[in-house]
User: Which sequence fits this backbone?
């Protein structure tokens, strides 16, 4: 299992600090992982944990939707 990117870690810490400053309890999603091997990459758009493309940081479902819309440069639907 791969580690989370630095940007995701920073966002998580920023949200956690804001909640602590307000005096609220941290939700389970923002708590620190007890074991580093349990950290899993997730799609930045939908949060899907499987079929994740590291290069684009999104899952295959979101990749397909964005590719069909022409949002990913150099990528087009194959047809033969």
Assistant:
């Amino acid at each position: 299992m791969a580690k989370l990117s630095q940007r995701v870690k920073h966002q998580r810490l920023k949200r956690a600090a804001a909640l602590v400053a307000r005096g609220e309890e941290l939700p389970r999603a923002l708590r620190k992982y007890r074991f580093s091997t349990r950290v899993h990459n997730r799609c930045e758009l939908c949060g899907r944990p499987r079929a994740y493309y590291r290069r684009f940081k999104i899952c295959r479902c979101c990749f397909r939707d964005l590719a069909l819309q022409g949002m990913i440069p150099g990528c087009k639907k194959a047809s033969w």
About this structure: The CA atoms of residues 18 and 80 lie 52 Å apart. The longest helix spans residues 6-22.
